[in-house]
Amino acid sequence: MGEQLIFDLDKQEADWLHSTRNNEYVQKAKIYVKDSSKAPEGANVQRGPRGGLYYESGAPPGTEAFIERQSLRDRMIEHQQQLLELGTYHPEDAMLLDIEFLAKHGGPNQQPDLKEYYSKLLETGSLVTVEMLEGESLEYVKEIADNMKKTGNAVEMKQCYMNAMNMCINDPENRILYVEGYYLFRDFPMRFGHAWCGIIDKATDRIIYFDPTQQLNGRNPVEEGVAYFGKEYTKEKMYDYMFSAEHYGGMLRAEIIEELTGEDDLQAQLKMRQYPGVGD
User: Fold this and answer.
1) pLDDT computed for residue 216 by the predictor
2) 239-257 burial, b for 16+ CB within 10 Å, e for fewer?
3) Orientation of helix 91-105 relative to helix 72-89, angle to 10°
4) pTM for this one?
5) If we measure between CA atoms, which residue out of 156, 178, 192, 186 comes closest to residue 242?
6) What is the C-alpha separation between 45 and 53, in angstroms, rounded?
7) How far are the Cα atoms of 39, 128, 149, 156, 163 from residue 152, in angstroms, in the given order?
């Protein structure tokens, strides 16, 4: 058996997960299948952006009228089951499916704020391919990590925002970029807030995205099938956020909420509780 993955949820996340078991009605969603023969007869099977096959739940045998009578509770459970099945084979598609679902339905209580948030997230972020660093880039990152440890900021698990931001702060050659968003594990397809980095590789002059929290603690997110969705920030933009919010992480969420509310970053941070399911 593979290594068991254990996740710590804060109260806000636990409340949100519990709330997915409640309430009324949402409309059709994408239903992913292993192959087209598993779809109902007459269903329009399509291929997702990362290769997964799906059909919409409005296809036969269910009619639109039948779909509309389904409760939200049933649809949320169906959605979670789809994530479990899809995540095993196509975690990137599972990531997009979850965000698209919330952008359309707004979560268990059809909250308009969540619809707006996730719709804006789809516009702002994108899937990011994370790689395992090798060679000179890996040695350079290890050197940064050693210097961070000497100042009391060792790269530790469950400290992804601090790790990624401090990587940028302690980057003497100005090669590290900050990336923030969400990740989703193949073996546990539920999104979690996360931060990682990019590095300008000297050998190829391209940006390689890597996860310092995972790789520098002996994990391999490539082999473990981790999907990443987020946005890249320059070091200057990250500094501006840190000085205004006085907070590690939450940069992407604050940016989106700022756009939706007209509040600045700091005030947007204070409004995070109005957006359940968006937190770390």
Assistant:
1) 97
2) eebbeebeebbbbbbbbbb
3) 160
4) 0.72
5) 178
6) 7
7) 54, 30, 5, 11, 12
Average pLDDT of the residues in 150-156: 95
pLDDT, tens digit, for every residue of 160-184?
999 999 999 999 999 999 999 999 9
- Rounded Cα distance between 63 and 127, Å, is 33
Q: What is the 3-state secondary structure (H, E, C) of the chain?
A: CCCCCCCCCCHHHHHHHHHCCCCCCCCCCEEEECCHHHCCCCCCCEECCCCCEEEECCCCCCCHHHHHHCCHHHHHHHHHHHHHHHHHHCHHHHHHHHHHHHHHHCCCCCCHHHHHHHHHHHHHCEEECECCCCHHHHHHHHHHHHHHHHCCCCCCCCCHHHHHHHHHHCCCCCCEEEEEEEEEECCEEEEEEEEEEEEECCCCCCEEEECHHHHCCCCCCCCCCEEEEEEEECHHHHHHHHHHHCCCCCHHHHHHHHHHHCCCHHHHHHCHHHCCCCCC
Residue ranges per structural domain of the chain: 11-124, 128-274
Q: Which residue has the tokens 């996740």?
A: 7
**Which residue do the tokens 């509780």 mark?**
273
Tokens, residue 109: 């209580």
Which residue type is seen at 252? Answer: L
Give the angle subtended at the CA of 27 by the CAs of 25 and 28, to the nearest 5°: 140
Q: Which two tokens stand for residue 230?
A: 């987020």
CA atoms of 194 and 188, how far apart (whole Å) = 15
